[in-house]
């Protein structure tokens, strides 16, 4: 199998391992990820009026996303602990969704896309927890990386 197609997180025997990144150069890295919580127009109306029974769902989800990014290596087994230099969580209500956009930044030897994805998922799950009394069918979907920058591979954007 050519080198570019070999799995990096398993050894020759197939056992999981954390990749050694110590020889990589430290560089500025940035990732942008997105997702959405699907709900009802009634929930969005309550959200906009701060009328949800549990309180300010947007504030709770924003903080949960930041906390999720910070805890990524505790949740994703082979993810390296890195110093996060910035995390922003943007939550935008539409007619029947809350759009989630997260940007993560670091200057380290490995990327921050897992932190961005974990922040999106955590913010979305916190939002569902805040609205489930009103909409038990709310769902989180389309969690994806939109863009990553830095490191050896440079810029990648979702086609």
TrEMBL record:
It comes from the Bacteria. Its EC number is 4.6.1.17. Residues 18-151 form the Molybdopterin cofactor biosynthesis C (MoaC) domain. CDD domains: MoaC_PE (cd01420). One of its GO terms (biological process) is Mo-molybdopterin cofactor biosynthetic process. SUPFAM superfamilies: Molybdenum cofactor biosynthesis protein C, MoaC (SSF55040). Gene3D superfamilies: Molybdopterin cofactor biosynthesis C (MoaC) domain. Keywords: Lyase, Molybdenum cofactor biosynthesis. Substrate binds at residues 78-80, 114-115. The keyword Metal-binding does not apply. One of its GO terms (molecular function) is cyclic pyranopterin monophosphate synthase activity. The active site is at residue 129. Pathway: Cofactor biosynthesis; molybdopterin biosynthesis. It catalyses: (8S)-3',8-cyclo-7,8-dihydroguanosine 5'-triphosphate = cyclic pyranopterin phosphate + diphosphate. Homohexamer; trimer of dimers. Belongs to the MoaC family. HAMAP family: MoaC_B (MF_01224_B). PANTHER family: MOLYBDOPTERIN COFACTOR SYNTHESIS PROTEIN A (PTHR22960). Catalyzes the conversion of (8S)-3',8-cyclo-7,8-dihydroguanosine 5'-triphosphate to cyclic pyranopterin monophosphate (cPMP). This is Cyclic pyranopterin monophosphate synthase. The gene is moaC.
